[in-house]
Every structure is written in C-alpha cells, then in structure tokens.
Amino acid sequence: MRYRTYSEYMKQKYGEKVYKIPISIPVSCPNRDGFLSVGGCIFCGEKGAGFENLPDVIPVRKQMEKNIAYIGKKYKAQKYVAYFQNYSNTYLPIEKLVQFAEEAACIESVVEISFSTRPDCISTEYLERLKEVSEKYNKQISIELGMQTVNYHTLNKLNRGHTLAEYIDAVIRIKKFGFEICGHIILNLPWDDQEDVIENSKIVSALSVEHVKLHALYIEKGTKMCELYDRGEISIISLEEYVDRVVLFLQYLSPDIIIQRIAGRAPEEDTVFCNWNTSWWKIKDRIEKKMEDLDTYQGAKCDYLNGKALTKFTTENCTTQILHLKNYHKR
Ligand code: SF4
C-alpha cells in the first residue's frame, strides 16, 4: 500500500480485524442549538454525519448489541470500536457523557470508544473524566475532531464557530491524556486551493495527529451552502482535481499518520452535489491508481519537520530518511 490504512493498523494493534459500530445519542452541537449560532455550519444538513445510524432513543447498550449481533454474525467479528458519531458527542453535561461512555465500555467485546466532536467541545475536565473511564474499564479512548480545513478564512465562511486556534488547543489537551486523535478534513471546500491542501497536511503532521479521515464536500438541499451553489456563487472542483489534491495531501503527510478514510460515503438523496455521482470506492481506486502512476507514496514530500534548513549541514541524515520512507512503503 502507498499509504497507511486504518484496517491494517487496527489489526496490528488489537491482533485481529476490529469493526466500528456507530452509536447515536441525543446530543446537539453548540453551532446548531443557538449557543454559538443557529443553523450551524453552512453545509450541515438535518441528519448530521450519522445518516445510517439507529435512532438515538435506543439506549447505547441496545444499539451496540443490535449491531454486534448483525456484524458479528456476518463477518465473524470479535472486537469493536463503539463510535459515538453524530453531531458533537462531548457537548453534554459531564455526568451524562460519562454515563454514555460507561454504557459502551462495559461491553466486553468493545476494545475502544471513539467520540466524534468539535474542537470547542474538548476541555481538560472532560478529558480527565474520560481517562477515568478508560482506566476503570481498561478500554482505549480516541477522539475524532472536525476541523475540515486549517484555512481560518474558509472556516469563517463556513460559519464553523471556531478557527484553527481551537483545533490546536484541543489537540494539545487531548495529547496530554494519551488518547489518539483523528482529524476530519475536506479537500474540496470552495474557497480552498492547493496551498490549503498542503497546509492541511503540514499542520496535522506537525501536531502529530494520529489519524485522518478525508471526505469530499457534499451539498445537501436546504442548506446555506446549497443556496450559494444554486446562485452560482460557489463551484466545486472536478473529480480529476480532487484526486490530485488527495495525492498531494498524502505526499506531504507524515508517514506515521493512519488514513482512516480516503474517500467518504455520503447520502445521495436530498443532495445537489455528491461525490461527482461516483461511488466512494471508485474514487478510492482513482486515488490509488494516480499514486501508482506517479510512483509516489504517503510522506514523499514530508521533509519540512524538525528543522528542514539544518539538513544543509546533515545531508547524509536527510538521504537516509528518504530511503527509509521509500522502503517503508515498499514493504
Ligand atoms: S459542527 Fe458538525 S454538527 Fe455542528 S453545525 Fe457543524 S457540521 Fe453540523
């Protein structure tokens, strides 16, 4: 593989294939409920990310059991990640968050609990409590942080309600507790160009975020983004350019970072634009083919960390590092 895959990483970490089970809980988002704004990010639809999840009225344990019964039988799976997916899953009173975390943690086959959230829904106090759950039940905890782009001008246009600073703050805090972090990034936002793509890659690498999830922007009907699109005020890059951007992103990305998702699935109904009407796996194939054609790999251009200018005096070290990278991806 020319990039590090999540499935392989999890197999090595837990000794076998691990399946992520999405869970919905009755939670909102400070950017939707009026605390920061009403309406939220201009691309955010009614259903949030978990368009295929079970309803949030079903208790966490029941949702897990139902999904485990199905997936366990279908794939002979034994180990799972409880994945709190929809909206901002740490935007809760702290006792409620601990209660949900414990409901998942006490299921024996759950090896990890993952919370998807926003950077401004992370605090030291909350992380301390999650650490207690992690230690009490001997389960790993990971945090998925929506960032989308490091371009804070674009973040403002998206009405994210936070900028790059909150993201950096959240990453630094989470790292103190040893939880792995996954950054969500959209590489075809209308106001971003290739320079932003490179900077996205460099920032997550510089922050030593452990995982990234890439997905292309889709435009849902009824959103402010859709209004801009219908009025011709924004346009979407071609699939060819998107593939080029993903390859560029991977070239600049630290070879240590795991790619949890290289192309995202999205709800086709109720959208005016979704993945260029192409299935996610065809997009994935095109990205991988492009990497083959260019004979390139994750980290091929990751030469900017740890005092690049000083390589002038240590050329030998630099050459050794590049050789190491090439060999790593040939394995
Ligand atoms: S942070 Fe997520 S849930 Fe909240 S408004 Fe933005 S996209 Fe929607």
How would you portray this structure in words?
- The chain is α/β, with parallel strands linked by helices.
- The chain folds into two domains: 6-300, TIM Barrel; 306-331.
- The protein contains eleven helices and nine strands.
- The mean pLDDT is 93.
- The site of iron/sulfur cluster has 11 residues, from loops.
Write the layout of secondary structure elements.
Blueprint lengths: L5 H9 L3 E6 L36 H16 L3 E6 L9 H12 L4 E8 L6 H14 L2 E9 L3 H6 L6 H13 L3 E6 L8 H13 L4 E4 L4 E2 L3 H7 L8 H14 L5 E4 L9 E3 L6 H15 L20 H16 L1
Parallel strand pairs: 1-2, 2-3, 3-4, 4-5, 5-6, 6-8
Antiparallel strand pairs: 7-9
Iron/sulfur cluster binds next to loops.
Report the bound ligands by name, code or SMILES.
iron/sulfur cluster
CATH superfamily of the largest domain: Aldolase class I
Biggest β-sheet: strands ordered side by side in the sheet: 1-2-3-4-5-6-8
Helicity level: 40-55%
End-to-end distance, in Å?
8 Å
Mean pLDDT rating: 93
| Class from helix and strand fractions | alpha/beta
Q: Looking at the structure, what is the overall shape?
A: globular
- CATH architect. name of the largest domain: Alpha-Beta Barrel
Nearest-angstrom radius of gyration? 20 Å
H-E order: HEHEHEHEHHEHEEHHEEHH
Name of the CATH first level of the largest domain = Alpha Beta
Number of helices: 11
Which topology of the largest domain does CATH recognise?
Answer: TIM Barrel
Question: Could you tell me the strand content as a percent range?
Answer: 5-15%
Main beta sheet: strand number and arrangement?
7 strands, parallel
- Multimeric state of these chains? single chain
The count of DSSP E runs of length 2 or more, i.e. the number of strands, is 9
Spans of at least 5 consecutive residues with low confidence: none
Provide the domain count: 2
